[in-house]
Amino acid sequence: MPAGFSVGGPQYHRRVTPHDVFSELVGQDEPVEVLRRAAAAAARVVAGEPGGGGMTHAWIFTGPPGSRRTVAARVFAAALQCQRDGAGCGECHGCHTTLAGTHADVRVVTTEGLTIKTEETRSVVLRSASAPTGGRWQVVIIEAADRLHERASNALLKAIEEPAPRTVFLLCTPSVHPDDILVTIRSRCRLVSLRQPPSAAVADFLVQRFDVAPEQAGWAAAASQGDVERARQLAGDPEARDRRAEVLSVPRRLTSIGACFDVAAKLEAATKLEAASAVAELDVAERTALERALGAGGTGRGATGAMRGAAGQLKELERNQKLRATRAQRDALDRALQDLIGFYRDVLVTSMRAPVPVVHGDLQAVSSAAAEKWSPESTLRRMEAVLACRDAIDKNVKPQVALEAMMVTLWKG
Ligand SMILES: [Zn+2]
Fold this sequence. Notes:
Radius of gyration: 24 Å
Number of helices: 16
Number of domains: 2
Largest sheet: 5 strands, parallel
Pfam families: DNA_pol3_delta2
Strand order of the largest sheet: 2-3-4-1-5
Distance between the termini: 49 Å
InterPro entries: DNA_Rep/Repair_Clamp_Loader, P-loop_NTPase
Shape: globular
CATH topology of the largest domain: Rossmann fold
Helix content: 55-70%
Mean pLDDT: 88
Order of helices and strands: HEHHEHEHEHEHHHHHHHHHH
Number of strands: 5
Low-confidence stretches: 1-17
CATH class of the largest domain: Alpha Beta
Organism: Actinoplanes xinjiangensis
Bound molecules: zinc ion
Protein name: DNA polymerase III delta prime subunit
């Protein structure tokens, strides 16, 4: 099977069926309709015709984790660059290069690297006023607009206030809360709210695109609780399935106070390991690139000073890489806690006989047994303990401490 292009996330083998770029936005019918109309209007503007209003120069994409905000921004950018009347055909040069990240008129301020650098962001924003080389649109995607520093935000605000005629800003942020985005920026943007896609839509996507067997797709879609990337991972990666099984064995392993501490330590270690393996490849590549740029070795006059500067840069890289590893561990912990919440939710809906489908269908026997044993109140306390743990980690409490506190409540109820 040939490797297809990828929209965000890791490379993945996909079925080669014709589809337009919007089909990436699983279960987002309303936003897709808005974006399609805007891209068509934008194409009319390019053709010198009246646009008809649907298009504007600044957009905000929001939505819960897993709703694929950045994918939505990239897909819209592709449609804006699409040579077939903004249809987002997925096949023309404009679509292709945008999705591959090589289009000359699409600049992405990404979160994949280390931190979002203020200077870099400012210079991207400042350069955005130039005319598009391809004659269509100059697009700037900011993948984590909520993490912009003040100076970068101000440059962005200025650019949005006085837009160049063919420049479009696509900002991605979890919400439009003032903590996430300046009110003054928000007020000048059109909002695209993505939702958590329904399980059935996610399952269908896995079947159509990745050739996952329907039963497996249904299970992965439910277990991922609407997170498309997570569903794709569960369907295609046995290690991800093993890690999930390990996390979901936690409730059964909590048999004593000693077990609570033991299970907390093991979960902490497992997420650290997962994070380390997630960033390892990128770490090495960055270090090699930096060493090459610094010209490893070198003798003669000035070499000592240069070496000292190089040592500083390497140290800076190491510091940033450590931050990224911490962030990756938080992501791994977050996935684990999300799985646990799903389990306790299943226990609750079972004991209340609520007519809703369970998240972890493969663990129904365990959640039913727990529903027999625990009162709904104690199940709720367990759910609250997981949420409190997540909150604590968000507020920089050491993961192990937060996990230990959570495990004790999960055990006692
Ligand atoms: Zn196209």
